Amino acid sequence: MSRIIAITNQKGGVGKTTTAINLAASLASLERKVLLIDLDPQGNATMGSGLDKAELLYSTCDVMLDQVALTDTIISGLPCAYDLAPTNADLTAAEVELTTLTDRECRLRNAIQNIRDQYDYILIDTPPSLNMLTLNALVAAEAVIVPMQCEYFALEGLSALMTTIEGVRSTLNPSLKIDGLLRTMFDGRNNLANDVSAQLDEHFGRLVYRAYIPRNVRLAEAPSYGLPVMHYDKGSRGARAYLALAQEVLAQEFHR
Amino acid sequence: MSRIIAITNQKGGVGKTTTAINLAASLASLERKVLLIDLDPQGNATMGSGLDKAELLYSTCDVMLDQVALTDTIISGLPCAYDLAPTNADLTAAEVELTTLTDRECRLRNAIQNIRDQYDYILIDTPPSLNMLTLNALVAAEAVIVPMQCEYFALEGLSALMTTIEGVRSTLNPSLKIDGLLRTMFDGRNNLANDVSAQLDEHFGRLVYRAYIPRNVRLAEAPSYGLPVMHYDKGSRGARAYLALAQEVLAQEFHR
Ligand SMILES: Nc1ncnc2c1ncn2[C@@H]1O[C@H](COP(=O)(O)OP(=O)(O)OP(=O)(O)O)[C@@H](O)[C@H]1O
Ligand SMILES: Nc1ncnc2c1ncn2[C@@H]1O[C@H](COP(=O)(O)OP(=O)(O)OP(=O)(O)O)[C@@H](O)[C@H]1O
Ligand SMILES: [Mg+2]
Ligand SMILES: [Mg+2]
User: Fold this and answer.
1) Is residue B210 classed exposed, middle or buried when 0-12, 13-18 and 19+ CB atoms within 10 A define those classes?
2) Can you say how many angstroms the Cα of residue B177 is from the centroid of all Cα atoms in its chain?
3) What is the three-state SS of B50-100?
4) Residue pLDDT, tens place only, A36-54
5) How many angstroms separate the CA atoms of B157 and A48, rounded?
6) A42 touching B, CB under 8 A?
7) Is the distance from CB of B242 to CB of B28 less than 8 angstroms?
8) For an interface test with A, which of B224, B227, B232, B233 has the most A Cβ atoms less than 10 Å from its Cβ?
9) Tell me, what's the pLDDT at B85?
10) What is the whole-number distance in angstroms between the Cα of residue A42 and the centre of ligand 3?
11) CA distance A197 to A188
12) Would you call A96 an interface residue with chain B, using a CB distance cutoff of 8 Å?
């Protein structure tokens, strides 16, 4: 039975896509069957997985507008070793159109039903917004991973995110829970990062993953080669950190 | 006659808000009368300017839905020395509602008309998306500043942004032009940043500002005190870099 996890934070640039790509690759390397769904019109998870978003036959846009089944969009056999449901900027149009439809928040959840048995993990990369696309991911998911840059604006935005998650849990998706908060681009030499990290521990306790992702330029270089960092530079601090995260996510399978 | 400048890039976390706040403060310190309009539901420009977004009487949401005039939302006399039209998460609701209205792209432009003579510069901070709010900013503005982190995903997203700007110029706002691309969080020691920077120079030439903003932790610390960096640490590299940008923006007044 697969676990469906949304990777969400409306604050921009906190490492959502980097986490989606590298957690997917790390779980795949630990013998899990993984699908990554790109639900951000920027298509960064698509490009970062080695696929050209300009050449797609179908994308998650077509799925959200009920034109094709999710399985028709899935690409497998990529070097990154996980399956991918890619997307591109067409998805922006779907977002506007979705607001007019009746079951608009449940489109992705319905689309995933038919294929969920084929995977151990389904990860969903979301855009930097609390919009209809992110809402679809929160309704479809059973758990949320919140990448969290340890800086002021990201910390300040957490309460809005928590309120939104609580709102979805109390209406459309009672089984939704937070799997964890992940410290990203973490630089322990800097007071601000340590201060914010201490505040996270104080407010969220065990919900904060022990694993954290250090700032590591290899993570920023890898997507330009269309590869997860473990296939670009396996020994790098970034690759090792995401592997540690994957092991922590697996260990929680039985607890959360 | 005031210049209206949108600070826009749909890529998340590239320094839009940091540029909006610190360029506004730098221009104000050079004796210009400046208004900063926060058009991002995250309300980061509001909090970073020292105002509590939870305590607003009116916000830009009310302006977009035609409930109050822009002048009714403007707060002056803040320590940051520029005027602010603040916002909060209510603006998310306005975004959805706007899509149903007739003159939806021109709301902000119409709202600015009555007050533009009171300012030399009107800066607009936008959300990480090419949505109706960003569209309103591009229709209202005469120029766009594009903060640009020198990394792969930000570079890859530029063509979608340029296409959108061109689309607005050929339909709703023929006078819209790019004032410049601003390298942000720049770390010259890292090959990726230098590679991307070289590509910017090659493709965009003089459109890339000579001034660039180095990665400087003071810029990330200042917003937690509700201050632009020049009022938090005047001698920091971040404060000096934004002052240099302000001088370059002023020098372009007569050229672009
Ligand atoms: N730990 C890290 N160390 C160094 N660079 C990183 C790290 N994590 C992410 N990056 C880089 O930082 C930038 C932002 O990360 P990313 O695009 O994954 O964030 P995001 O939250 O998905 O952004 P958006 O809000 O636009 O979707 C990217 O250029 C990425 O390559
Ligand atoms: N030059 C810099 N040096 C160090 N930190 C910076 C710099 N510029 C911005 N930051 C920090 O990086 C983070 C992202 O910047 P900022 O929030 O301004 O980007 P943004 O493009 O407005 O993000 P969003 O897409 O969420 O609106 C913030 O925590 C900010 O404090
Ligand atoms: Mg992303
Ligand atoms: Mg911002």
Assistant:
1) exposed
2) 14
3) CCCHHHCCCCHHHHHCCCCCHHHHCECCCCCCCEEECCCCHHHHHHHHHCC
4) 999 999 999 999 999 999 9
5) 12
6) yes
7) no
8) B224
9) 98
10) 7
11) 9
12) yes
Centre a 10 Å sphere on the Cβ of residue A72 and count the other Cβ atoms it contains.
12
Neighbours of B206 (CB within 10 A): 10
Task: For residue A66, give both structure tokens.
Answer: 């009920």
Chain A's closest residue to B163, CA to CA, is A89
The secondary structure element, H or E, covering residue B47 is: helix B44-48
Please state the three-class secondary structure of chain A as a single string: CCEEEEECCCCCCCCHHHHHHHHHHHHHHCCCCEEEEECCCCCHHHHHCCCCHHHCCCCHHHHHCCCCCHHHHCECCCCCCCEEECCCCHHHHHHHHHCCCCCHHHHHHHHHHCCHHHCCEEEEECCCCCCHHHHHHHHHCCEEEEEEECCHHHHHHHHHHHHHHHHHHHCCCCCCEEEEEEEECECCCCHHHHHHHHHHHHHHHHHECCCCCECCHHHHHHHHHCCCHHHHCCCCHHHHHHHHHHHHHHHHHHCC
Interchain CB contact of B220 with A (< 8 Å): yes
Give SS3 for B179.
Answer: strand
Count of Cβ atoms closer than 10 Å to residue B209 Cβ: 20
User: Which residue's CA lies nearest to atom 25 of ligand 2?
Assistant: B12
Q: What value does the mean pLDDT take over residues B40-52?
A: 98
- Name the phi and psi angles at A199, rounded to 5: -65, -35
For residue B123, the surrounding DSSP H or E stretch is strand B121-125
Q: Each residue of B211-238: pLDDT tens digit?
A: 999 999 999 999 999 999 999 999 999 9
Cβ neighbours of B134 in A, within 8 Å: none
End-to-end CA distance of chain A: give it in Å, rounded.
16
- Kindly report, residue by residue over B246-256, the tens digit of the pLDDT: 999 999 876 65
Inter-chain contacts counted by CB atoms under 8 A, chains A and B: 90
Q: Order of strands, edge to edge, in the sheet holding A3-7?
A: A83-85, A34-38, A121-125, A3-7, A143-149, A177-184
CA distances from B178 to B4, B121, B144 (A): 12, 16, 5
Residue B158's contacts (CB-CB under 8 Å, 6 or more residues apart) are B146, B148
pLDDT lower than 70: segments of chain A: 254-256
Determine contact: B19 vs chain A, CB below 8 A: no
